[in-house]
Amino acid sequence: xxxxxxxxxxxxxxxxxxxxxxxxxxxxxxxxxxxxxxxxxxxxxxxxxxxxxxxxxxxxxxxxxxxxxxxxxxxxxxxxxxxxxxxxxxxxxxxxxxxxxxxxxxxxxxxxxxxxxxxxxxxxxxxxxxxxxxxxxxxxxxxxxxxxxxxxxxxxxxxxxxxxxxxxxxxxxxxxxxxxxxxxxxxxxxxxxxxxxxxxxxxxxxxxxxxxxxxxxxxxxxxxxxxxxxxxxxxxxxxxxxxxxxxxxxxxxxxxxxxxxxxxxxxxxxxxxxxxxxxxxxxxxxxxxxxxxxxxxxxxxxxxxxxxxxxxxxxxxxxxxxxxxxxxxxxxxxxxxxxxxxxxxxxxxxxxxxxxxxxxxxxxxxxxxxxxxxxxxxxxxxxxxxxxxxxxxxxxxxxxxxxxxxxxxxxxxxxxxxxxxxxxxxxxxxxxxxxxxxxxxxxxxxxxxxxxxxxxxxxxxxxxxxxxxxxxxxxxxxxxxxxxxxxxxxxxxxxxxxxxxxxxxxxxxxxxxxxxxxxxxxxxxxxxxxxxxxxxxxxxxxxxxxxxxxxxxxxxxxxxxxxxxxxxxxxxxxxxxxxxxxxxxxxxxxxxxxxxxxxxxxx
Length: 603
What we know:
Blueprint (H helix, E strand, L loop, with lengths): L3 H8 L6 E6 L5 E7 L2 H10 L4 H9 L2 E6 L3 H15 L2 H6 L7 E4 L7 E4 L8 E3 L5 H14 L14 H4 L13 H15 L4 H16 L3 H18 L12 E9 L2 E10 L2 E11 L4 H12 L10 E4 L5 H8 L3 E2 L4 H28 L6 H9 L6 E10 L2 E11 L2 E2 L5 E4 L9 H19 L6 E5 L2 H14 L6 E6 L5 E6 L4 E2 L7 H27 L2 H6 L6 H10 L3 H6 L2 H5 L5 H17 L7
Parallel strand pairs: 7-10, 10-11, 12-16, 16-17
Antiparallel strand pairs: 1-2, 1-3, 4-5, 4-6, 7-8, 8-9, 12-13, 13-14, 13-15, 17-18, 18-19
Helix pairs in contact: 6-10, 9-10, 12-19, 14-17, 15-16
């Protein structure tokens, strides 16, 4: 029996081919599968009777996600990649022994063409994996005959049997020029990349001649070789034979929200997918451009050799800042990959909206589940807080209010923090916003909430309790909402020792906490973006006479923030190719802005 949360998601499954990833309560992927029709296949796990290992797997499923593909074959190949990457527990149990071969050109002085089961970081060329091992083996046999490399161990001092058969270039008894190897390798790579027209025509002609001469066994052998070429070398979108490391950014915008999908193509395979959903304040193009640039400012997030994006972005400006080519493909496999990422972005956002719409009708008892789990009397109102800043700049806090499990947006509040010296100080930020909020309620004689929730951990909880108990003499339960390593709702903290409550992750109460945490984070980030936009680097630089897009790009790439530009000397600015009058004007303007900037508050 699926939980109500899973029932919601099952209704939203697309009627398309793709892969599904089953997760347990900890967010760990426990099973990966493929389907011609995701809706029918995934629903069958929860709507049919199962026994043994399948029943055990289904009993542990707390969530799932999907990746849609253009064809069923692509879903099969993607499944291989996902299983190899995540090694899910139940795939090991249910598909024990499954393996798929690759065709490899070794990186030796005398290279060899062979079949292997794993990829190593050895500088060799790999093609695959191939679900049809027989077809891959037959294709390898064909390549040995048509494009010979080295078949023997080499340097034997005499010609080997393969040399006499025309399947070895003679490394066994003579030096083979590198140019000859390079010519053969180029032809093999072209063949395995799908350029099979020439050899297909030749085999077709041979088959027709054999049939005309009544050599039916020979004709059947050639027919089978043509079939093996088709099923082995056929172009793929998910597993490409292009070895270039690339990231694909695609997006979908609706109702003020932005859904971004990032596909990481490595070793010719889709190695990772990241999903991001957030509300937007600026124009979508500005939001997406900033997201891509900031994405690669994170630790250990190095740009690939190439970035592919949808049309409409300032590709050259992004490329100049990141130092890698940023392209919008116009045709072929790359364009289809971008389109597939876009379709997944739309699916994610549509699912999000529909889940939220369903959930607003399913809150009965959720508040009661939370108070029961906390050991508190029945209540109605929860006020939740979160902070937002970027490297300490423009710190803000936000509060959302849920009454009987429903958000009441007219009661939401925004706070620009004004007394925090170190803007990244979570304790000081929490104390200021709690003090301002509940001092005001006391003055107005307004009712207090039944529960206060802090998005964070023990630090925020202790800071809030300190103000409530020691400054305002209020007894309001303070609960912490904590996230796991995947930044998803994990549990509640409560009590004198800040204990974990272990709320049932399949319960309505847990889902309500998840909605509260997502909503307060969304509200805080949205407010912070609106504040930051007014003080953004671009707008402040654009206001300076003589600073155009080219100069702005140079400054952004070199310094990254207003403070660092303001600290730079005129000589440093001139070193970037900026003329002296403009450099002096930049210096004076930014210093003057810093002098007149005043903190403001909103309550």
